[in-house]
Fold this protein.
Amino acid sequence: MEMISLAQTLRENSYPGRGIVIGRSEDGKKAVAAYFIMGRSENSRNRIFVEEGEGIRTQAFDPSKLTDPSLIIYAPVRVLGNKTIVTNGDQTDTIYECMEKGQTFEQALRTREFEPDGPNYTPRISGILEIGDGHFDYSMSILKSDNGDPSSCNRYTFSYENCPAGEGHFIHTYQCDGNPLPSFEGEPKLVAIPSDMEKFSNMLWLNLNEDNKVSLFVRYIDIETGKYETRIVNKNE
């Protein structure tokens, strides 16, 4: 697979929606996860990321303007032992709870499908990073309608073992802006992951559409020790 320029891809797409990037830093020392949200409506744009335990959650920036919390207020990131879960919805909790009971990432997601927000039927995108004994593997998933048909859910899981240094993958909810919004197609895109968290965070934030971007989360996890650094950027401050 040819590596794409993540900066260019974001810059040329006014509305990729919500996106997950997972990979390994160029120096090989860090597992990296990033998650961003965008919004077109006032309700979607009225959000910030806040830390919650070892993870994060979304929160209304102005509670008086919150009209429907059902699909916009959730915990995008949770940590279960050596596993970091990143998703674009409340399936984070489903994955956490099922894996806590000994089930797999895939088994947990078999109980869920795309979001019930017709006619878009927004895909549920999810990722999981597993770090242990100096090894780092990750998986990504997308659950989406069958070309806009809500009677059929298409499920795809992509697993990456022993990820090479400096490489990662990017998956997002929408191909581009539109009415209805067209779902992401194909495999997660191969992208470069630098060693500098600040550089990576700035690149993501600066290339997301200025009108539509809402919040960004980036975490670098030391593969040997499990210690991590996190950066959160909110347009609403």
The chain has a mean pLDDT of 97. Residues 6-234 form a domain with the Glutamine Phosphoribosylpyrophosphate, subunit 1, domain 1 fold (CATH 3.60.20.20). Helices lie at 6-11, 42-45, 91-100, 105-109, 197-207. The first strand starts at residue 19 and ends at 24.
